[in-house]
Amino acid sequence: MGGGRESRSCCFRRAEWVAGAEGGVRPPTPGRALREPRAARSSGPRAQPYVLVGSRGAGSSALLRAGEPRSVPRRPEPWGEMAAGARACPPRVLVCLGVLLARWVAAGFEALVIGEVHENITLRCGNISGPRGPVTWYRNDSEPVFLLSSNSSIPPAEPRFSLANASSLHIKVLRPQDEGNYTCREVLNETRWFRVWLQMARGPYEVEVNISSTGALPNGTLYAAKGSQVDFSCNSSSRPPPMVEWQFQAPDSSTETFGNNLTASCFSLLLMSQNLQGNYTCLATNMRSRRQRKVTTELLVYFPPPSAPQCWAEMSQGSLMLQLTCRWDGGYPDPDFLWTEEPGGVVVGMSKLGVKMLNQSQLSDGKKFKCVGSHIVGPELGASCVVQIRSPSLLSEPMKTCFVGGNVTLTCQVSGAYPLAKILWLRNLTQPEVVIRPNGHYLITQDGQSSTLTIRNCSQVVDEGYYVCRAENPVGVREVDIWLSVKEPLNIGGIVGTIVSLLLLGLAIISGLLLYYSPVFCWKVGNTFRGQDMGDVMVLVDSEEEEEVEEENAAEEEEEEEEEANEGEESPEEIPKHGHIHRVTALVNGNVDWMANGLQALQDNSSEEQSDIIQEEDRPV
């Protein structure tokens, strides 16, 4: 295809026309030839030959120069010889007609006239202006046939023949058998002969176009699938066979021609694309009559969407009706949509836009709806998507507290709702079923399916009570109550003083415990008591075993007193100077090393005391 458009794969089949090799047309050869002297053809003035092309309508004709291609007929062979001075025989004597027609004057003319079947035509007797003499017309077949004469006493051969402009032959309702050679004889001062060759043309009629497309729309428009192969063919009846030319015109572009005037009636387009959509015209031209007939066919190129359909559900504006929407973009033309309930396949509705409105009576929690998209060029089963609707669920804190004059925020979280739920805040006690609107006292914010209500400058009289968070969609409505308690603010100074006092008391207790249970502190205290009274040993023990240790010490002291009393009776001279020696079982919590050090010190002290006692015993009384 020309015009700079991308190359397209076409296969052409050439038609074989009945025509000359170079476009010219060869007339048939007459059956009987009448020879003419060579000198008669060469003497006298000779006018420029012409071609007379007949057109539709009575008495209409057109002149073409004989020098143009396919316009100059081949001269018929002469019909015989005749003396230059021979007289014309009477018209009624047909035997002499051959001699009359053999008279070839120097001013002979030739003409080619194209006539169409069932039309009228006028054959002119030469291309001469001025006064004309008596005229006689003959048909030159195998034998000369008289047709018409300017002599009114001689009737024409057929009523279809008449004389026009005193010299021209007018033929009505041409027939295919009217094709042939015609001769006009004019007698004025001298006899002149003019020959006219009449060629018959017919058609083209009934141009038949065949396009192997994918299908046809109800209005007759053809369409083909993108990427497919489309075959084109064009046929027409004509005499001679017509030249067929295919033309293409895309939307908003100029006409382009296939094959550059080639006589092609068949071609194919491989891998149809979107830019090959448009009008295809088959133009059949009769090369004789130049009559044309064309048939234009619109061909559309369709293709389905490349991706899968998408569907969703949403709440319609201003109502609680459910709006189902299905989209399947990217194809041409737009697909059709069918909504059904699943399972079961109950048809909900069909539409070109893919939108369906449902009221609440048709809805229930967990219900599924299926959208099936179908395209004119496939796929055969179409493509589908499913939507499942859900009622909302709410999550919120049941109680909130606010101090008088402070701010508090109530939060409400919606989950599981499809389509998305609408969240509202209401008062359950003071203003039931009245929606709270944002103002200077209330601030409402929403992020997705989470909504917050902030109450500023809390008042115990106005704000305390139940607040309702409501979530609603076409499937269902859910509500949750939140109790707001408003309290007076506490004495901050008293609270701080109490806290500080408790901290100090705790610090004192911890310090006392550390001092009481610290092993280092016990060792220092033991040394101090040992310096004051060498006879007593002081060891800190756990409070849990204090009573047991005291009982054991008391029992040991009684036994020692009894032994001393007995010893005093037996040996009164031995008087101990030091105090009592106490046996003490010490339990030290958490530090074995310190306990070992304490026992070692006690053992050392006991050894010293025993050595002192022994020394005193060894002294003489």
UniProtKB/TrEMBL annotation:
Keywords: Disulfide bond, Immunoglobulin domain, Membrane, Repeat, Signal, Transmembrane, Transmembrane helix. The chain crosses the membrane at residues 492-517. The keyword Membrane applies. The keyword Signal applies. It holds the Pfam family I-set. InterPro entries: Ig-like_dom_sf, Ig-like_fold, Ig_I-set, Ig_sub, Ig_sub2, Neural/epithelial_adhesion. Residues 543-573, 606-615 have a biased composition (Acidic residues). Residues 110-201, 219-302, 397-487 form the Immunoglobulin domain. Residues 21-51, 543-580, 599-621 are annotated as: Disordered. Residues 116-191, 225-289, 403-476 form the Immunoglobulin subtype domain. This is V-set and immunoglobulin domain containing 10. It comes from Canis lupus familiaris (Dog). The lineage of its organism: Eukaryota, Metazoa, Chordata, Craniata, Vertebrata. The gene is VSIG10.
